[in-house]
Give the backbone structure.
Amino acid sequence: MIDVVFLLLVFFVCTVRFERNEKVYRLDLPSRGITADPLALQDAPLQIIVGIRDGDRCSIELRADGVRRTAENFDTLATAMEQLRRRPGVADGLFETSHPILVVPAAGSQWQDAVDGFNAAVRAGYANIGFAESKR
Amino acid sequence: MQTSDLRSPNGEHSHAPNQIAPAMTNLRINISLCALLISGLTAQNALAQEAPDPTRAQILEEDFLRGISDLGLAHALEDLERTEPSTAAADRTTTRLRSMALSRLILTSPTTLLPDRVIAFDQLRKTRKSLIKAYANDPRSILWFTDAAEDEFVLGFLGIDGGVEAIAGAPVAEILPRASASLDRIEQHLDSASSAEQTITKTAIPAGSLLAQRLEDDADGRRPMLAAAVKAFRLAIDRSTQSAEQQRDRQAKAALLLKTITQLRSQIPPRLRPEADLAEVAAASVAMQSDIARFGAARVMLVDDPMLTVLTKILAAESLMNDGHGIDALKQLSTLLVTPNLPTALRLLTADALVRSRVFAGKSATTEQSLSPWIMTLRASQPLERAGVRRAVLERLAGVLRGVRIDTELPPLAMIAIARDNLLKNPNSPADLALATLNSFSNQSIDAEAQSTALEVLAEIHSSKSDWPAAADDYRRFAECAAQEPMALTSMQTALDIELALDRANPNGREENLERTLALASTRFAELPSRPSTVAQWEALKARRMIQDFLAQSTAPSADQVAALSQAAARIEDLDRAARNARLDPGSRVSATAYAARVAADFLSPSHEQAMRTDEIPTIALWNTWTMYDAQRILRLRLERAARQGTPPRSALDRELAGLPASFMTEENPMAMTCIVDFARRQVDLAASMSATGNANSIIAAQRALDALEAWENLFPSLETHSTSALTESFARLAADAAIYENSWDSAVARSDWITTKPWATIDDFRRLTEALSSAEIAANSTKNTTLRDALRTRAMASARDLAGRVVQGSKEWWISQVIQMRIAQESGRGGESVQARLARLRALDPALGGEPYRTALEKFSSTASPPSGSL
């Protein structure tokens, strides 16, 4: 019995991986049926359009009224989005932290890329992020 | 947008980026001119690299300007002058060269009328003369002389001086000397070019340069060809009787010329080939018997140019005539004359030849049969070209019949032509008979062509003698008689202008004629530019005359009546005077006319004056004693007056309609509806014409008229089905504008809202609703009516969002919606960072924030600016 227990202990010791805890992602799903404040400015969401991956490359585009940028990868996307974010006391940002962000994956794009887009927005400091249906 | 420089494909010129706004303009110029220039540029590149060529750029610049003129690119010339002013050009000839290009542009434009063409050609001659004089030692002057000869040939001889008609033998006496003088000028220019070639030192022309090559081409190709063409045309237009030997000599010369022209064909610029064809036809017409002439004629047929073909056939027929085959010649020409789809100018040329041949064949020029080709050509012409053909035919008839007395045996048009010629060109001839002839044709209506021609001639004659009252009548009658011709519109406007000028000079002098002219212009010439003011003037004049008639005819009007009417008449006179005062701005003049019409409206029916002004008599009493039409008319006038005085129309109506028989307002009796719809239409027209001039009173007029119409609609729902939808739309929009103007926000919102529910609603209607809601909200806020304010605020915000979604981003309506949304958000406490962020995004979209007034309104929301005051 003790041999069996010992063997099991050795097995679990060998197979365990000391991974970080899974992140707790904030995720605001698109609201349905919730009445928005009728007198507040309703801003069109800033869209992160995630394209189909071609090997190592994945086309990423940032699109909103007056803004149209492409990003090489999700790090540069995060940097670009951070530059566009308004910060207290700085007048040159275009989008508030609470500005709606919509990740729009193209039909056939990889889910991991959509999640990376989401993560980039989180890293850039935005709080109101959602996923749109795939573009067909 | 940055544009590549057309003239610098090899980097020779260095131009600033051309800021020509429309990209298409540049594209078009690129496409058109690159083709034009590419051959010259590629051919010369190698040479340019070998030796310096100081005049190359100048020559290319001239090519460029010629290309612009030939292709009719007026806008390109304007853009060029704007971006690269000629005054700043290194080549000091640029100003004159561009001026010449502009003159050529005018000359080559198909829309330029003959008088303007003559002026432009004179200008071209003067500019070129001064250019050559100022730069006499410039080697390019040799080319400029040849250019002058070429322009004289193409634009002068063939374009203005009737060269083709002279070759085909038009019987108008003036053409021949004019064409001959034109040929003299061409020869002079060619001689001057040869002299300049001798005097200018050869060292001024760099060997192997583009200039040297051009001069060589000029000397070998263009000048000899022009000289040969001049000789050919001289032979062709020479119709003097000659001996058989002289005739043979003439034919030999022509045959020789034909050979020369054939040899030179390969050495002339492609643009001159049609003219070379024409010269060949001219020479062939003289050398018709020789083989080479036949060959030339056959070749011309192969070119398949309608003009050359027709000309060749005419000249061939003439040759047959000279050889004694008159019948065949007449047959050929008659067949040619009735060829379907023959352009009118060529038909006229054929008619000329046919008339000449008939006279040559021994027929009298005064018979109807001889002159019928011209009359037939006039009758076959399209309304669009009728005026020009009529003038040409009259001149031809007069030319053939000069010296012939007016005789009833002649065709009507021939009589008119002689009368015109006598009155305009032979002041010594008896005028009475000529005028009587014209008057008799103008007063009959059996022959419409003769009537309209006589009226046009009378107008021309009376204008030339400054008999303006008669001229105004003639122009008006011509417009009435020839309403299907485009000339009728011009005549109508001329008649109107003359009548109004006469009335200004002497009011009441020609009231009947003025009224007739205004009535015709208002009722039959909807496309007349001045129609809205004409209609209002007509209304005012009618009222003025009715008041005068009433005062003159009324047997025993009371003192009060006379005083009231006199007062109204005086007021109308004042307003009329203001309307005709040329020193006032057009808007005030139209509104003065409209006011006059309104003041006069009460007096439109003098016989009903008593009933109209006595409110004690109910309409039912009138109904019983007067005719139904009278009763309705009185009712309408009372209603109009009530609307103008601000009395609630409904109560006025209730009072008037009480007890009226039901049939008065039912569908069996459509007169009431017609009456009110006409009234409504007049009000809309009036308000629209006032509105077009920016007169704020237009919307008040519309508002009141609409109130009256609405009252009628409530009582009589089927009225709407009788009013046209266009009327309903116009009225609804005018009423909404009126409500906004009068700050009646409830009404403005309701009316605008109603319009946006209709299928015919436009973006402008949605814009109006949004603005009305926004203004209504501001008004409610100022009165502390918070419940109403909140409701309106919510609707205004929703409407602004809706508007933004309907229009193109960056449009006027889009910016309006942005301003309204941001104002509401700010004032309802939802501003702060979201407004600042929106503002930053709008700036990223357009740094000018849509321009004024949106920029100022939006910048008020900036956190650095003072607190916003509100609306746009």
About this structure: Chain B touches chain A at residues 793-794, 797-798, 801, 809, 821-822, 824-825, 828, 830, 833-838, 840-842, 844-845, 863 (CB under 8 Å).
